Each structure stands twice: as structure tokens, then as C-alpha cells.
Write the C-alpha cells for this entry.
Amino acid sequence: MTQDLFRQDAYLRECSAHITAVTDTGIVLDQTVFYPLGGGQAGDSGVLVLADGTEIAITDTRKGKDAEGNPTSDIVHIPAPGQEDRVAQLALQGPGTAVTARIDWERRHRMMRLHTTSHLLCHVVPQLVNGCSITPDYARLDFAMTDPLDKEALTAAIATLVAAAHPLTVASISDEELDANPALVKSMSVQPPRGTGRIRTIRIGGDNDAPLIDLQPCGGTHVANTSELGAIVVTKIEKKSATTRRVVLGFAQ
Ligand SMILES: [Zn+2]
């Protein structure tokens, strides 16, 4: 099992950790700041730094799988091509070997900004989402709807929410609470992160008398305040099908 430090603090750029396994797929640690692909958000890249200063470049991060292909609670750090010798050496050192796990922070922070903006978009476009992808360069959300959407109007609505500096709060609800409030789930394509009895939620606004902007189950990494999002624009709106409108978010040039 890998302890997922990024869920409590998305701003951690590195942590010390110990190897628990080196497999054909990659390197498993006892704890990590690397986010594994999931919930539409891409996996982190970065480096593992060994005690002697040697670095192993990590190109992607995935959830572990057992022999039947079911997800495990391991997080697998996938070495970049060309790292085979270093990984083999690490495997020889065996479990317990200490490393520093350091993410490509600039890349991750771009994903945090786009992921949080995609939640703002759920407020601006209150329709069910049936597909989503968060990358360092763009985010796209597919809304199950037939009405047309206006690029400039959406960009302006997002800018207003950014300027209002709404704080984000990470909390959790029980499976029962979620079952009693099915409207919290705004995505038809991403399952809420169930399994531990508690489901992580991301709330934007809603403190004291402040307006609630958005509240939904989400396992992803987010900024602490919408003021940190900066200038994000809707770069494209596509009619993906008769019943789906795709909205693409990007950074203002
Ligand atoms: Zn999310």
C-alpha cells in the first residue's frame, strides 16, 4: 500500500520514501507525492533521487493492478525509457531503500489549475459530465446537453469566479451520505473515489455565508483558492454528438 500524501496536501513537491517493490511496470513506494492517472487527471512525472544523488526519471504514474487486473492501493512510478540500468540497480538494493520522490511541479501545478477550473465550469454549465480529461496543457469536459454554448460567455463567467477568490476545502462524506445526495455526482464517466468508507469531496466557496459554487466527490489535486487560477480561457467548444457539447479549457496566451 502506498500512502497518497497529495490527497491531504496537493502542494507537496517532494517527500522521502522507501521502496516497497520494483516490478516490470515500475517502482512502488511506501508513500508518495506523485498523483496516479485517475478521475480524468493525468499521472505525474518527475524524478526519484537515490541516496547517492542518482536520479531516476519518472515519466508517468499509475495505480497498481493485481494479477486479475483489479486496482490495488499501490502507486506505481513508471521509469522513463533509458532508465533500465538504474532501475535494475535499485531492484538489487531491494525493499526499504530510501529515495526522495520529487514531482515536476510546474507541470502538476498547471493540472491543478485546470482541474479546479473544470469544477468551476460545472457551476457555469450545470449539466452532467460524460467525459473529462485534465492534462498540463488543456482540460476538456463533455457535457450531456443539446443547447449551444458560447465561448466568450463561459470565459467571462470563469474569470468572474477567479476574481472572486473563492477558497477550496477538501473534506469527505460517507458512502451513505453520498447515496442520499446523488445530485452531488456531476460526472457520468468518473466514479466517486469509494472504497474506504469515506469519499473525498472538493468544495468551492460555501464558507459561512459565502455562496456555494461547487461541491462534488473528487480524488484529484486542486489549488487552495480560485484566485490562484490566473487567466484561463475556453479555447474551443465542439458539438461532439447530437447530445454532447465538448468544452476545452486552456491557458491564456
Ligand atoms: Zn475533479
